[in-house]
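@channel anyone free to eyeball this complex?
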Amino acid sequence: MKKKHHKPHRSQLHANYVRRIRIQEFWVVFTRIALLVLFIAGWEYSADAGWIDPFLFSSPSRITELFIQMAGSGNLFHDILVTTVETILGFALGTLGGISLATLIWASPFLSRVLDPYLVVLNSMPKVALGPLFIVAIGAGYGSVLAMGVAITIIITTLVIHTSFQSVDRNYLRLARSFGASRGQLFRKIIFPASIPDMIAALKVNVGLSWVGVIVGEFLVSKDGLGHLIIYGFQVFNLNLVLMSLLIVAVCATVMYKIVYWLEKRLLKYRMAE
Amino acid sequence: MSGHAAIEVRQASKTYLSKQDQVDALTAVSFRVMPREFVTLVGTSGCGKSTVLSMIAGLIFPTEGEVRLFHEPVRGPSRRIGYMLQQDCLLDWRTVEQNIALGLEIQGQKSDEMMKHARYLLNELGLGHTLYQYPSQLSGGMRQRVALVRTLAVQPDVLLLDEPFSALDYQNKLHLEMLVTRVLKQQGMPALLVTHDLEEALAVSDRILVMGGQPGTIRRTMEIPNDLRKANPLDARAHPLFRPLFQELWGEIDQ
Ligand SMILES: Nc1ncnc2c1ncn2[C@@H]1O[C@H](COP(=O)(O)OP(=O)(O)OP(=O)(O)O)[C@@H](O)[C@H]1O
Ligand SMILES: [Mg+2]
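replying in thread with the prediction:
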């Protein structure tokens, strides 16, 4: 009988707890949305009332109008597609390339020591400054834009992942070696999987970085893409176009970030457990 | 007689070298572990106990002298050795089942049969229900038991234990001592244990080697009387011979 009494009591407690959390969550989301609505409404109103110059700062209605107009012609989606594909490719190549380079360097401790100062120097260099070099070498096209996306991510990824490889708990390695593991086995069974959280962290950083690389790349060379729209809007002083492109970049980058986040959740199941 | 030894260390010395300096960790260490025998190394911190185990496990090599395992000189890690470290070292991205399979995978002997045996051992240690859980979901005592199963799963012929219970609370420690001694007796497996805990040393061993000095060496060997050997770790602690031996051992160490 005591037990029967006990159980509903506990679940009541739990239900209350869950309810409190739900209410908190609701207010967080509500405030978030309210802020956005307030910002957009305030922006629109200030432009209409003449507090800010709509020619310089545009307004939500003007941006929407332009979006509908450009979307109708279909050109906009071409630009979005070009930039997104460049970014995803740059991101993937930069990250995978960085991980592969880190693996290669790990495989040879000698090489690792030889290359160390070069990597540090390369990393501290502003990669976008390499733009002109790429244009000369590859030509003013998609190739150069992609190269920028890769250049900006690959070195830092290499450094971070290589450090991660080296900082794997030495006891894990002792354990594997006591079972007679070869160097390759150490890498496959211990070092690589142990570094996956750091790889995911690198992915997250690289999402942002590759957008920087590609947009700057498009500033420099491209005849299409969102970066081109931004620089073109700036040149003809169409700030509606600039702001609209910026918003689209923000949305696309967020979607990419979300995908990486989802990947993290799937890959790091074990961390979420309990 | 020496021909039968499971482990034989002969006049082994070890000097660690680094750029800055050298550390003489061991000098002229000699001892044997016979089949079915449970030998324990005790001694102050830094006297080289872990170094001795690492040498036997083939992870490092003596600067001088020799280590033999079932008559064969040790030239690297051997499949005949199960080495349990102080930290449980469970891989947190693997489930318990995948963790206990690690040694089998590395040694290329993972088969249905071997895995069945591993799961059987897990069951024996009362952890059958944790098969698909992750280490982060287990308590310290449970993790250490999983580590023990992982060590035993490769079916070694000798067990090396480097302070495997020192991170556990008293109850868990006793429980694991009972389990380990039972498993070892069942399988007739020789073992070499390192511990800081003199009570533990007395309760589980057949023989205790007291190490000391800088560089470390074996100062004394203490044979445990038969009555005490036969008792399990819990009963041994209550045995009338236990306290006097503890005092004696304490005196050896604390000088
Ligand atoms: N890899 C290493 N490089 C240099 N010196 C080392 C290394 N490993 C151990 N030593 C030194 O060798 C000596 C013995 O170390 P060891 O770890 O074997 O001692 P221990 O008896 O196991 O100590 P504890 O009880 O604290 O675990 C110590 O002085 C230690 O500093
Ligand atoms: Mg030690």
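from a first look: The interface with chain A takes residues 57-59, 76-79, 81, 83, 85, 87, 89, 91-95, 102-103, 105-107, 133-134, 136-137, 154 of chain B (CB under 8 Å).
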